[in-house]
Every structure is written in structure tokens, then in C-alpha cells.
TrEMBL record:
Record-linked SUPFAM superfamilies: MurD-like peptide ligases, catalytic domain, MurD-like peptide ligases, peptide-binding domain
Swiss-Prot/TrEMBL keywords: ATP-binding, Ligase, Magnesium, Metal-binding, Nucleotide-binding
Stretches assigned to the Mur ligase central domain: 57-283
GO molecular function annotations of the record: ligase activity
Pfam families: Mur_ligase_C, Mur_ligase_M
Name used for this protein in its record: tetrahydrofolate synthase
Catalytic activity field: (6S)-5,6,7,8-tetrahydrofolyl-(gamma-L-Glu)(n) + L-glutamate + ATP = (6S)-5,6,7,8-tetrahydrofolyl-(gamma-L-Glu)(n+1) + ADP + phosphate + H(+)
Claim: Protein transport is one of the keywords in the record: no
Family as reported in the entry's similarity comment: Belongs to the folylpolyglutamate synthase family.
Record bears the keyword Ligase: yes
Domain Mur ligase C-terminal, residue spans: 311-437
EC code: 6.3.2.17
Length: 458
């Protein structure tokens, strides 16, 4: 296999748009768990990942927010930080950040041209073509190892952990935020099976921080850690936290860890964000205590408070109040329901939702439907969307047992028209919420914030 450098006249890709189209054009190869193709790609490129420090973050929900807390504090403390996350909310380049800034378009083009011939050649071998996510991961590793050289990379898994392509790295700390029923078609349909996949990121001797609560999931993680002689820092055992106060501007909590106790404040809303912040704080304590990271209390406090993650219980419009939340599985819906009651007193709750076709929507609705006064069912602008009419059938089946007696249901497949309905029906004392797949959240957020360069996608 040959390697191409630069973006000269013979480079196969000539513009940023062409590079993104090429990478997204690999989507039909689907999600193919396994490390063979990424291992081969890295080998051909000189194993750039071996020159980097990683914090590897897995979990069902809360990965992105945890990455945001870690990135914010490390930046505040003066470190150069790479952050690799997915899916993106606004633009393809969001996935690959360095010091809070997206990868430059010309750099992405250059690195895509490095990868293009290798990917094309591999497609002709028994390994088959690398997938979109594999190529994105390879591009991230090249970017951090050869272009910007961060002190540490905050590294989010794509799906699962054990067979996820991000698992090619050996981190300095592993994080498992929580375990829930998501991607059961790939990860298994029990908490134990899913926990086993997430626990696959635990490496020999590398400490693992987790906020997992289910006893069966905790058992799986502890057994895996014991096998590879890794130390587990479990929320509720090795560290703990409790809320001190909260209002519409944020919440504060007390953290008690193995090394010390401290108070922290975060602006991110939602009860579950305390879990993510406390887990991130435990990671930072390990970096400070065992890995010679210089993190003073003021930087930790400012970093946690200033952390932000788009589309996670995010109030984007103040009049009327409209909140976006990418809850798309039962655990996310349960957290969303608790947070709505906890943070925003309201007269009526108007909920707009759109889903993909492969999720546990019945369990999702069981958590959120009892709170809703007006339900607007719509469809995300995405190939794997669920028809709003199908979603209606699930709602009607659940309605007699759990919904409010006067629940109003509107079916509007066009998400832009559905958003107009939500805005027009949400009065000053009401709360409007848009929830469901991040593909919907991305479009709605761009529309509400008048962002013209939104690309949204996986």
C-alpha cells in the first residue's frame, strides 16, 4: 500500500467538502465492530497513537458531557487538549477539537488525502473497506500525533468499548459513565452484556473511574478490572457527591474523594450532570495525584463551571422557554423527566420528539409521557428515521395507562413545521422541550440559533 502526502495536484480530494463527502460516503459500510482495520491503518502510518496520552471515555449516556468537563478544566489549567467526540451537533469538524477549536478545514483535507489511498487499497483486501467511523478515528489520531501535539487527548468511544475502534489506544485513565439499554442490536440486550462491552476499554494497570449504579454492571466492571489488575474508582464507594443547591443558572455539589473533599459549581443543567461532573473530577484527582498534572483548585472550579455541551438539557430560547435535550433511550428519558421537574417550574409542558427506528421508544415514553400536556411527534431529517405515525401507535398504546387525561397529540412529520407549532403553543409560563435523536436536535438547534453552516451528522 502506498501513502500519499499533502494535497498536491494529484491528490484525490481537492476541497474540504469533497473530503467530508468521501468520509461520509463510507457510511454504507455500516458499524463493523472490530480492531483489525484500524490496527492495519495505524501500522501503515507508523502507529501515531502510541505517541499520545489519552483519557478514554465510554458509557451509554453522559460521555460527551464528561468529555466537556475534562476538556474545560485541563484547558483552564494551561494544558493543550485534544477532544474527539461523536456525533457532532453543528459541523463535521466538531469531532476533532484542539484547545476547544475545530480542526481547520485545510488540515482535514490534507489528512483525508493521506488516508484515501490506504483506505482504497484496504477495500480490495480480505479486511474490506474501513468504515466512516474508522476513517474518522484514524484522521483524529493523525491530527493529534502529527499536527497539533496535545498534552492529553480526551477520547470518546463511538459505540460500546471492547470492539470499538477507539479501543486501539492505551489510556492513562479509563472512564465508564453509566450503563443503559442502548444499541442492544450490537451490544447485547442485558445490562450485563452491555457492561461487558463497555468494560472492554479497561486496560492492564490503568485506573478506571465509573458512575455505574446497577449492581450487575458494577460486578462486571470490577471483575474485568481485577483480571487486568486495574484499580476501580466507583461512585458511592471510592468517591461520592451530593447536591448543595440549584437554580436556573446551574447547580453546586460537594465532592468527597480518596484524597480530599471540595465544593464545585456547574452551569450545565440536569441532575445527571452532577454524576458526569463528579466522575470527571475523580479523573482529574487521579491525574493530579498520580500523574504529575498541575491542577490548582481555582482552575478546577472555573473549568467545571464554564464547561458546556450543546444539546444536553440546553435552554436555547428564553421567550418562550425552549430546552433541547438529546435523550434518546430509557435512561436518558428518565433523567430528562427528573430534570424538567427539578429545574423548570412550568404551567404546561409541550414536548416535540423525533426518533430513529432502532430504539426502545416504549420505555422512553413511559418516563416522559406522564408529564406532557402537548405532544408533537415529528421526524428527523435522517435516513434511519422513525415515521411519526409509527411513534403515534406506541403513544396511543401507552396513553390510557400513563398519560394525562387531556393530553393533546399532534403529528407533524416536517420537523421545521413541528418546531413552529411548538413555539406558537408555548406561552410565558410554559416549557417547550425538544427531545430525541441528536440528528433532530442538531437541526432544531441550528434553526433556533440561526446557524447557517450546520452540517449535522454522525
Amino acid at each position: 500500500m502506498t501513502e500519499l502526502n499533502g494535497t498536491g495536484a494529484d491528490a484525490p480530494l481537492h476541497t474540504y467538502d469533497e473530503a467530508v463527502d468521501w468520509i461520509n460516503g463510507l457510511i454504507p459500510f455500516g458499524i463493523r465492530p472490530g480492531l483489525e482495520r484500524i490496527t492495519e491503518l495505524m501500522s501503515l502510518l507508523g502507529n501515531p497513537h502510541q505517541r499520545l496520552k489519552f483519557i478514554h471515555v465510554a458509557g451509554t449516556n453522559g460521555k460527551g458531557s464528561t468529555c466537556a468537563f475534562l476538556t474545560s478544566v485541563l484547558l483552564q489549567a494551561g494544558y493543550d487538549v485534544g477532544t474527539f467526540t461523536s456525533p457532532y451537533i453543528t459541523k463535521f469538524t466538531n469531532r476533532f477539537q484542539y484547545n476547544g477549536e475545530d480542526i481547520p478545514e485545510e488540515t482535514l483535507l490534507k489528512l483525508a488525502n493521506r488516508l484515501h489511498p490506504l483506505v482504497t487499497d484496504m477495500a480490495t483486501t480480505v479486511l474490506g473497506s474501513p468504515t466512516m467511523f474508522e476513517v474518522s478515528t484514524a484522521l483524529a489520531l493523525l491530527y493529534y500525533a502529527e499536527e497539533c501535539y496535545p498534552d492529553v487527548v480526551v477520547w470518546e468511544t463511538g459505540l460500546g468499548g471492547r470492539m470499538d475502534v477507539t479501543n486501539i489506544v492505551t489510556p492513562v485513565v479509563s472512564v465508564i459513565t453509566n450503563i443503559g439499554m442502548d444499541h442492544t442490536d450490537i451490544l447485547g440486550d442485558t445490562i450485563e452484556a452491555i457492561a461487558g462491552e463497555k468494560a472492554g476499554i479497561i486496560k492492564p494497570g490503568v485506573p478506571v473511574v465509573t458512575c455505574v449504579t446497577q449492581p450487575e454492571a458494577v460486578k462486571v466492571i470490577q471483575e474485568k478490572a481485577q483480571q487486568v489488575r486495574s484499580t476501580v474508582y466507583l461512585s458511592g464507594e471510592q468517591f461520592s457527591y451530593h447536591r448543595l443547591d440549584s437554580d436556573e443558572n446551574g447547580q453546586s455539589f460537594h465532592f468527597a474523594g480518596p484524597f480530599r473533599e471540595l465544593d464545585a459549581r456547574i452551569r450545565m443543567q440536569g441532575i445527571y450532570q452532577m454524576d458526569n461532573a463528579a466522575g470527571a473530577l475523580m479523573v482529574l484527582e487521579l491525574l493530579r495525584q498520580y500523574m504529575a498534572f498541575i491542577l490548582d483548585d481555582r482552575d478546577i472550579a472555573l473549568g467545571l463551571e464554564n464547561a458546556f455541551w450543546a444539546g444536553r438539557f440546553e435552554k436555547v430560547v428564553h421567550e418562550p422557554r425552549i430546552v433541547l435535550d438529546g435523550a434518546h433511550n430509557p435512561e436518558g428519558a428518565e433523567s430528562l423527566a427528573k430534570s424538567i421537574v427539578d429545574v423548570y417550574p412550568h404551567n404546561k409542558l409541550n414536548l416535540m420528539m423525533g426518533m430513529l427506528a432502532n430504539k426502545h421508544h416504549e420505555a422512553y415514553l413511559q418516563h416522559i409521557l406522564p408529564l406532557v400536556d402537548t405532544l408533537i411527534l415529528t421526524e428527523p431529517d435522517f435516513r434511519r428515521k422513525m415515521d411519526a405515525a409509527e411513534l403515534l401507535q406506541i403513544v396511543e398504546r401507552l396513553r390510557p395507562a400513563i398519560a394525562k387525561e387531556n393530553l393533546e397529540i399532534i403529528v407533524e412529520p416536517d420537523w421545521a413545521k413541528a418546531l413552529d407549532l411548538l413555539k406558537s403553543r408555548t406561552e410565558a409560563e410554559d416549557l417547550g422541550v425538544v427531545s430525541g435523536t441528536l440528528y433532530l436536535i442538531a437541526d432544531v438547534r441550528a434553526a433556533l440559533l440561526h446557524q447557517t453552516d450546520s452540517e449535522k451528522g454522525w
